Amino acid sequence: MSSAPPPGLPLVDAMTPAVLVLPGPVARDEVPRLCEDVRARLESSGAGVVVCDVAGLGPPGLTTVDALARMQLAARRAGGRIRLRDPDPALRALLGLVGLRFEVEGQPEEREPPLRVEEAVEPGDPAL
């Protein structure tokens, strides 16, 4: 005996991103371990995003920027990305200064500006 599937859309479990907490300043020798943690969390969660809680990092420096850049690279190579949670304004400024853009939790994604749209066409207007 068979039964019909329930009406409506199928139920899908939401994928919750894994969280990696970075306490205290990051030392250069910790970076390979952090990159491996990012890869492992991407593989185990299947979410495609690892949230890096950077609230406890303290004053940012170039070692922190280097670590975050390498973690993002490791995530991209594993088919995912990292998202920062609660970054210090100084860290965000430093990342912007060196030209690195990270998705920040709670902020809308940056999108390309919309293309020019003409709402009305007047007779005699030249074609673009």
Q: Bin the strand percentage.
A: 5-15%
- Number of helical runs? 3
- Evaluate the radius of gyration: 21 Å
Q: Mean pLDDT score, rounded?
A: 82
Give the helix proportion (percent range).
25-40%
Order of helices and strands: EHEHEHE
Strand count, sense and closure of the main sheet? 4 strands, parallel
| N- to C-terminal distance | 64 Å
Strand order of the largest sheet: 1-2-3-4
Structural class: alpha/beta
Number of strands: 4
Query: Overall 3D geometry?
Result: flat
Q: In short, what is this structure?
A:
By secondary structure, the protein is α/β, with parallel strands linked by helices. It has helices at residues 31-45, 62-77, 89-97; strands spanning 18-21, 49-53, 81-85, 103-104.
Chart the SSEs and their pairings:
Elements: E1 18-21, H1 31-45, E2 49-53, H2 62-77, E3 81-85, H3 89-97, E4 103-104
Parallel strand pairs: 1-2, 2-3, 3-4
Helix pairs in contact: 1-2
Could you explain the architecture of this structure?
The chain has a four-stranded parallel sheet. Strand 1 (18-21), helix 1 and strand 2 (49-53) form a beta-alpha-beta unit. Helix content is 31%, strand content 12%. The model has no long low-confidence stretch (mean pLDDT 82). The chain is of the alpha/beta class and 128 residues long. Helix 1 packs parallel to helix 2. It is built from three helices and four strands; from the N terminus they run E-H-E-H-E-H-E.
Notable traits:
single chain; four-stranded parallel sheet; 3 helices; 12% strand
